[in-house]
Amino acid sequence: MVRVLTVSDEVVEGLWNARRLPFEVDLVLGAGDLPFAYLEHLTNVSNAPCVFVPGNHDADLTGYSAGRVGWMRAGLPTSWPGPSGAINADRRIVVAAGLRIAGLGGSIRYRDGPNQWTEQQQRRRSGTLVRTDAWHPRLRRTTDADGSSRGVDILLTHSPPAGVGDGDDAPHRGFRCLHTLTEKLRPQLLVHGHVHPHGTRPVDHELHGALVLNTVGYALFTLTPGGTEPPVIERRRHGS
Fold first, then answer.
1. Under 8 Å CB-to-CB from 101, ≥6 apart: which residues?
2. Exposed (0-12), middle (13-18) or buried (19+): which is 75, by Cβ within 10 Å?
3. Exposure letters 98-134 (e unless 16+ CB within 10 A, then b)
4. How would DSSP label each residue in 87-110?
């Protein structure tokens, strides 16, 4: 089993100030809207890889590519504004700590700014993940009892699916396209942030067989790659 620390939206001072985490982890997931230095710190003190997606308050990370001579954007040398050493999974399927993770960052568009998308735009962006899964069938998980394939272990997003743990106000509405994406990729777990629980315990949801987990603050869970058993949630700290 893989032990995962997942964080989003609110810095937890106990983790930010830790020289060593109070628990062992194999992977750090960032669901957006956190200082990139915080993700770097968690990666260093855990000695674990970090996979993240950007939130609507994060810098614009589109258009960057890493080459032999360093980072490039629009054909020109530049520096990477994201967290050092972390993997940006936005619109990608990546493998880390043995888990196959699909990422889709950003929130519903409610004002000008980066990492905000209309429903139609996010639907097109989610199509990249569906096509990637279809083009690489050998990477699919095929451990389900009925022999059907499981595209990924975790779907990592910033915003929740519409009607599944989202908010009533315009900035915190979820995406309808995440319903289709979850149905097609069949993850064990959908991890999101964006919706602040304000000191309450958010309700866990189920969507097409996946546990939907709000990770504002942090959550610690274990998950078996390609498994059929639900993830085990060990610990949580919700935002204030």
1. 29, 51, 89, 93, 94, 95, 152, 153, 154, 155, 156
2. exposed
3. ebbbbbbbbbbbeeeeebbbeeeebbebbeebeebbe
4. EE-BT-EEEETTEEEEEE--EE--
Instruction: Tell whether pTM > 0.70.
Output: yes
Please write down the HEC assignment for all residues of 167-185.
Answer: CCCHHHCCECHHHHHHHHH
What domains, with CATH codes, occur in the chain?
Answer: 2-59+82-238 (3.60.21.10)
Structure tokens at 136: 């690489």
Structure tokens at 227: 């498994």
For 200, counting Cβ atoms within 10 Å of its Cβ (0-12 exposed, 13-18 middle, 19+ buried), the class is exposed
pLDDT tens per residue, range 136-193: 655 555 555 555 566 899 999 999 999 999 999 999 999 999 999 999 999 999 999 9
Reported as a single tens digit per residue, the pLDDT across 103-152 is 999 999 999 989 999 999 999 999 999 988 876 655 555 555 555 566 89
Task: Give the separation between CA 83 and CA 98, rounded to whole angstroms.
Answer: 21
**How confident is the model at residue 197, as a pLDDT?**
84
Q: What's the rounded Cα separation, in Å, for the pair 110 and 121?
A: 13
Helix (H, G, I), strand (E, B) or coil at 125: helix
d(C-alpha 222, C-alpha 217), whole Å:
17
- Residue 234 near residue 21, CB atoms below 8 Å: no
